[in-house]
Amino acid sequence: MRRSDLPEDFVVGTATASYQIEGATREDGRGESIWDTFARVPGAIADGSTGDVADDHYHRWAEDVRLMSDLGVDAYRFSIAWPRIQPDGTGAPLKAGIDFYRRLAEGLRERGITPWATLYHWDLPQALEDRGGWLQRDTAMRFADYAAQVADRLGDVVTDWITLNEPWCSAFLGYASGHHAPGRTLGSTASHAAHHLLLGHGHALEALRASSSTARVGTTLNLYSVQPAGDSDGDADAARRIDGLSNRLFLDPVLRGSYPADVLDDLGETAWFAENATDDDLRRISAPIDFLGINYYSRHTVASGSTPAAGAPASAYPGSEHVRFVRTGAPVTEMGWEIHPDGMVDVLRQAHELAPELPLYITENGAAYPDRVDEDGVIDDGARTEYLEAHFEAARDAVAEGLPLRGYFIWSLMDNWEWAWGYSRRFGLVHVDYRTQKRTPKRSARWVADFLRDAVPASRG
Fold this sequence. Notes:
This protein has 16 helices and 13 strands. 53% of the residues are buried. The radius of gyration is 21 Å and the shape is globular. The protein has a single domain (3-452), classed as Glycosidases (TIM Barrel, Alpha-Beta Barrel). Strands 1-2-3-4-5-7-10-11 form an 8-stranded parallel barrel, surrounded by 6 helices. Strands 6-8-9 form a 3-stranded mixed β-sheet. By secondary structure, it is of the alpha/beta class. Helix content is 40%, strand content 14%.
C-alpha cells in the first residue's frame, strides 16, 4: 500500500479534539465545559483524571504543528472549544480564544497543512447545560450565534468547517446512558437532544455560509456497519433497530429531510417529533452540505435477546435494550472494538446511496493499543500500523468501487485524554509522556511518513 494507490487529490490528515489535548482549562478567560464538570464526578472517569492539562497543546501547539509537518499530512482536523470563545455560551467572543485558533490555523498554513475546524466536539459550556443543555431548543440558537462569531473572525484562515462531531454520542451517551458528559440517564428523551443538535447544525451551516462565500461546510457522524448475528427474524429486527438508532436517525434528516418513522416508534417518541421537529427545522437540517464526515471504528453484530433485569445500567439504545451485541471472533483493539476494515466500505456505501453526489471523508479512524516504551525509547506499535494499513486498503477499495471518498483522517495525532477512559487508552501516532509532556513519534508515525512520501513503508517491527 502506497500513497500513489489513492487519487492524487485524496486528502490524508490527522485529527484531535480540544478538551482531549489543549489543557489550560482555566487560562485566558476560558469558561467551564460539561466535561470539566463531569470529570470531577467520582467514578465517572476510569483513572480519576481530568483534562486540565492533557497534552498542554494550548502552549505547545507550535511543536505539534512541526510534528504534523514531519509526518507530511495534507490537513489537520482540530476542534474549537466553545467555552474558550464564549465562557458561558453567550455574548461577545474572547479575543484570547480567537487569537489562539488564529495562530494555530496560520501556523498550519505556513507549513502547507490545511486547517479543518470542528465547531462542536462535545465541550458544551456548563452554563448552557445548567439551562437544560441540548434538551432545550434554545441551545441550538446559541450554537448558531457562536458559529457566526467564529466564522466572522476565522473565516479568512479556515475554509473547511465541520459543525458537529458525532451527535449520536452527544445525545445518547450524554443523555441516555450517562457514560459521557453531562452524565444524564433520561432514556428516550435523549432523542430530543439529538434533534436539537441537528437543528444547531442547520443553523450553524447558515451562519458559516453567510459569513464566507468560500466556506466548505459539512458535519461528522459516527456510523457503524450493523449486521445480524443470524438468520432469524429477531436478529434481523435487532440489526434494524441498532442501524436505526446509530445511523439512520442522523443520516435521514441530514440527507433526506425526514426522521425514520420506525426509529421514532422504537423510541416511543413519535408524538414529540411530530410536534417539535417542524417542517422548517427539517428544511434547515437537510440544507445542502459540501461533504459528509464519517467517523468509523468498528462494526456491530447484533442479536435479539431478553429484556434486561431491573437495575441494569442505563442503555445508550433506549427502546432497544433487549438487543445483544455479540462477538464475531475478529481481533480487537484495546477498546474492545472488533477490527472490520470492510465495515468502513459498508458505511460509505450506505451514505452514498442516500446522497450519490455528496463527497465523503473518513474524519476519524484509528486504534488504541497498550503501547510500551522500550529501553531505547522506541514505541514499536506494529498492531496500530497493521490496523492503519488495512483501513487505507479499505479506502482504496472504496475509491475503486466508485464511492466518492475524498480523504481520510487518522485518529489521533498524539495520545490524549480519552474521555471516560482518561489517560488509560492511547490512540496516538505520537506518544506523550503526560508527566514531562515529551512527544515521541511511534513506529506507526514513521510508517505514515513513509507512506505519504510514497516510499516503501517502514518495517512494522
